[in-house]
User: Which sequence fits this backbone?
């Protein structure tokens, strides 16, 4: 047997000595950019020749309109590029400026223990964090199963029938619950009642979101006074309350339903192991956060929020919903359900602008539940409650006044001076919560031990009872009538993997089912699936960043505030804006924040009538959904045959709505993948009518270092740090969607009631006055070191080179595939931006082969398909990014050419239209090894469609490193008709 040498398995193209000679030493400041950018100088020469230009400078000069292009000194505020070691050393210095203390602040954020097996095998594993949203379910079965575990755990613990695959955080989940109640309620009123004991950050987010869409909020002490008089469409109950209080809301829920309203309960998942769940109390909706299921606080995020609903409301759920369907062989298979609900289909009729989830964090939370199981979770909850009860008993014994109320994990204590008590606790290594001038709160979690309780008693008793006396137990305070009696997490998956060996193998099994960037290129247009470098990821698990409470004192988070301030400054410089807020924890929230800033600006100027938002027909659907949720009316602007905004139609719409024009939303480069030549004419026309220009930053990877939004007419933009700035997609989240604005809009960017002021001498985050859009002041700070590291190590020159390499890669793909698949839109000189749209409609007309057939056949070649049927049905949008090397790009091109040849064989009649390797793709190992092979093509063609590589060797490395999909093509319609969104019984997989 001949062993194939490792070199033959690489996707990297051969390098000659001259190319290696120009590569810098590993410690050189520009070494990182040479490893981030996949194509070498020699490779780029070959690519430029295929495109027909002499250099990347010439390419960019021809592609980017001269009216917006800036080639010299574009970005001046960034420091010179640092080496990887230098960047990590700087991060260490920033981390050292943070002081981690034991947090007893609570308010929805708890200290937690991330099991090492989950940290190592999920959070730090590129098989999980580099995956994309599971739009291609055949190659996403692992993360879909993990998400189904999450949905099952949430549904079981909340006592409701169906949960979705996660929300962005608790506050936005509550907002979505409010909007769901408004849609589903029989009551014809705009009033929504909010529990006075709801989390304060939730109330702040609710207030801004409700005002924008005309909802009237009424705050009420539901536990003490019940529902206020009058009509209402919904009510929010916090369970347990922010004060720690546990009470029975059944009567309030029944009263709300009697008035035709829906009841939403914001619940603590861990407490639900001991307390009667919301569904059994009569709730229609349960929302909250899964953070305390093994996910670090990380100064506020990222965390997976959740939403669960009673039977009958499943089709009202926002976000992602994983369901069980079947594949072509009838075997059970997972997929995303109810896809017609997505924003790019429903657009301004969408009921939510959230187009993704917090998948990586939901996976961690689900595996925490799997690892501990129902008994383990209950033991943790009992420890938390016992610790809180013991603290209350010891404080009372020491002379302190603890509020008399049932609680799960939080107690309130009267003190002479709350500020002095907080300072004394901080000196002893504790963070407490200030409730008011004479009251502090203490919340306990799975990390709290007896030593912490002893220090707390010393601080709060203030010597009134002498030395603290240790109490072994402490009276349990949960109301007997609210103790849970129902079963939860009974499925075998939650009762099978409690050893580390078992858990490790289960996680490996799931990861092996999936396709992520650690296997090969994911050429998804509009998604920018670029390298997530290991050095960028290093600081994510440092405790100096991960163990910070989002409302910790400013002095203790000085390093993080400085990092946030630096990143805001760098992003402003790169985009040509004056201010940046990092609070939005997804691109959708960044869109919303930008539009709310525009709305706030017009209202501040007395222009309340400016409510029209112009949006091109090509725009991503979240644009329209975000506009509606910001209280704006969408008017669609046509695009011309080249994919550009139709200037005549734009001017006509501007003239028609001149007095009511609030904004125009455009994406640049356009959603069609071209640099629109007349973008300045577009922005000028809107400004002349008094409107503001919102530029969607989804395609910023084609501009950085070459042009800036703020320089060609942009007033505000959101950016996607999970695209251009290297935060991993995580299987569909986490993300960060900062909003950047010109100075006149800056006062209306998101604020937050608990945002920390940077200490003197530290340039911290900006301070703004708009409505908050996320639960935490700075969104998801736990992953900001990733983008900070990327910008710091690339420097201005490296970022510009990355842009050039990305645009070159897209044009190279367009040049090589243009004859086989027409490129639908091209800009000046026949060039595209960083992505290209391949039109498969002529192929379908000629051969019957569909875009789905091509996408699924790519799986047999070992590729994730490009973006399907967006923005144009029947097309594939390809974005190689700058991180892929020429060998991998050519492997994709060769696969697409091979698929074209197979389609031609179908079109000629050589293979039947209903039985060919395209229509039957993807092929599983079981399918090609079955005893019976009834097909008109060979097993070898099915499994190994690799005739030769670019260099002529037989069978690419894909033969040995082949990815085998675990299921065949999935029946999408069956899954929607038969909605099953919880773990199926094991017997479903036995056959």
Assistant:
């Amino acid at each position: 047997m001949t062993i194939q040498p490792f070199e033959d398995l690489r996707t990297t193209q051969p390098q000659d000595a001259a190319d290696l000679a120009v590569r810098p030493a590993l410690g050189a400041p520009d070494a990182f950019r040479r490893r981030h950018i996949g194509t070498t100088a020699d490779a780029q020469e070959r690519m430029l020749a295929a495109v027909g230009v002499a250099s990347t400078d010439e390419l960019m000069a021809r592609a980017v309109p001269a009216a917006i292009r800036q080639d010299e000194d574009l970005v001046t505020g960034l420091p010179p590029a640092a080496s990887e070691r230098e960047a990590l050393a700087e991060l260490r210095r920033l981390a050292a400026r943070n002081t981690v203390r034991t947090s007893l602040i609570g308010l929805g954020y708890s200290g937690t223990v991330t099991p090492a097996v989950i940290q190592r095998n999920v959070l730090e594993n590129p098989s999980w964090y580099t995956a994309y949203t599971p739009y291609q379910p055949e190659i996403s079965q692992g993360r879909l199963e993990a998400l189904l575990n999450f949905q099952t755990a949430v549904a079981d613990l909340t006592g409701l029938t169906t949960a979705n695959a996660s929300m962005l955080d608790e506050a936005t989940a509550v907002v979505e619950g409010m909007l769901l109640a408004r849609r589903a309620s029989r009551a014809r009123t705009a009033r929504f009642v909010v529990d006075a004991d709801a989390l304060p950050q939730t109330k702040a987010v609710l207030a801004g979101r409700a005002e924008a869409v005309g909802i009237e909020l009424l705050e009420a002490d539901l536990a003490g006074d019940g529902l206020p008089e009058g009509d209402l469409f919904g009510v929010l109950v916090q369970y347990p309350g922010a004060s720690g209080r546990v009470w029975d809301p059944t009567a309030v829920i029944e009263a709300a339903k009697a008035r035709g309203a829906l009841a939403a309960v914001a619940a603590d998942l861990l407490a639900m192991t001991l307390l009667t769940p919301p569904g059994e109390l009569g709730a229609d909706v349960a929302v909250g956060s899964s953070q305390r299921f093994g996910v670090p606080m990380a100064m506020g995020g990222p965390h997976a929020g959740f939403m669960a609903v009673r039977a009958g409301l499943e089709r009202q759920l926002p976000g992602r919903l994983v369901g069980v369907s079947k594949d072509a062989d009838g075997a059970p298979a997972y997929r995303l359900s109810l896809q017609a609900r997505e924003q790019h289909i429903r657009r301004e009729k969408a009921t939510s602008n959230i187009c993704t989830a917090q998948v990586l964090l939901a996976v961690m939370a689900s595996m925490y539940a799997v690892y501990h199981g129902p008994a383990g979770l209950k033991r943790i909850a009992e420890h938390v409650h016992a610790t809180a009860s013991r603290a209350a008993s010891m404080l009372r014994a020491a002379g302190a006044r603890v509020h008399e109320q049932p609680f799960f994990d939080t107690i309130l204590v009267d003190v002479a001076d709350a500020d002095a008590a907080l300072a004394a606790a901080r000196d002893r290594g504790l963070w407490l919560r200030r409730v008011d001038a004479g009251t502090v709160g203490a919340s306990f979690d799975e990390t709290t031990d007896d030593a912490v309780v002893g220090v707390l008693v010393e601080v709060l008793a203030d010597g009134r009872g002498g030395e603290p006396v240790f109490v072994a137990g402490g009276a349990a305070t949960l109301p007997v009538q609210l103790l849970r009696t129902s079963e939860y997490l009974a499925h075998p998956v939650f009762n099978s993997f409690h050893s580390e060996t078992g858990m490790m193998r289960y996680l490996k099994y799931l990861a092996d089912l999936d396709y992520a960037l650690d296997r090969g290129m994911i050429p998804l247009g509009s998604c920018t699936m670029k390298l997530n470098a290991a050095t960028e990821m290093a600081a994510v698990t440092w405790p100096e960043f991960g163990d910070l409470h989002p409302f910790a004192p400013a002095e203790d988070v000085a390093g993080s505030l400085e990092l946030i301030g630096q990143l805001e400054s760098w992003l402003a410089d790169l985009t040509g804006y004056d201010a940046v807020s990092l609070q939005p924890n997804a691109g959708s929230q960044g869109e919303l924040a930008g539009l709310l800033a525009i709305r706030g600006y017009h209202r501040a100027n007395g222009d309340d009538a400016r409510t029209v938002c112009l949006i091109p027909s090509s725009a991503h659907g979240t644009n329209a959904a975000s506009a509606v949720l910001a209280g704006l009316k969408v008017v669609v602007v046509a695009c011309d045959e080249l994919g550009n905004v139709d200037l005549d139609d734009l001017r006509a719409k501007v003239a028609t709505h001149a007095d009511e024009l609030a904004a125009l939303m455009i994406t640049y480069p356009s959603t069609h993948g071209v640099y629109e030549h007349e973008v300045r004419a577009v922005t000028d026309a809107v400004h002349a009518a008094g409107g503001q220009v919102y530029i969607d930053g989804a395609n910023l990877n084609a501009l950085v270092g070459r042009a800036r939004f703020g320089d060609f007419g942009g007033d505000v933009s959101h950016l996607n740090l999970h695209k251009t700035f290297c935060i991993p997609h995580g299987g569909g989240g986490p993300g960060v969607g900062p909003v950047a604005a010109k100075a006149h809009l800056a006062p209306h960017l998101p604020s937050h009631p608990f945002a920390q002021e940077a200490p003197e001498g530290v340039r911290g985050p900006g301070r703004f006055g708009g409505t908050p859009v996320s639960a935490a002041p700075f969104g998801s700070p736990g992953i900001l070191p990733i983008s900070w590291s990327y910008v710091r190590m690339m420097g201005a020159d490296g970022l510009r080179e990355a842009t050039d390499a990305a645009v070159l890669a897209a044009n190279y793909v367009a040049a090589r595939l243009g004859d086989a698949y027409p490129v639908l839109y091209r800009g000046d000189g026949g060039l595209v931006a960083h992505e290209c749209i391949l039109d498969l409609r002529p192929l379908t007309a000629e051969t019957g082969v569909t875009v789905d057939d091509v996408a699924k056949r790519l799986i047999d070649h070992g590729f994730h398909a490009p973006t399907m049927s967006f923005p144009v049905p029947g097309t594939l949008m390809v974005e190689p990014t700058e991180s892929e090397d020429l060998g991998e790009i050519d492997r994709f091109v060769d696969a697409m050419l091979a698929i074209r040849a197979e389609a031609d064989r179908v079109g000629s009649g050589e293979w039947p239209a209903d039985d060919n390797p395209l229509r039957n793709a993807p092929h599983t190992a079981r399918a090609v090894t079955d005893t019976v092979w009834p097909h008109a093509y060979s097993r070898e063609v099915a499994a190994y469609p690799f005739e030769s590589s670019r260099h002529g060797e037989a069978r690419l490395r894909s033969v040995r490193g082949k990815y085998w999909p675990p299921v065949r093509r999935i029946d999408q319609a069956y899954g929607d008709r038969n909605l099953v969104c919880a773990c199926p019984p094991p017997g479903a997989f036995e056959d």
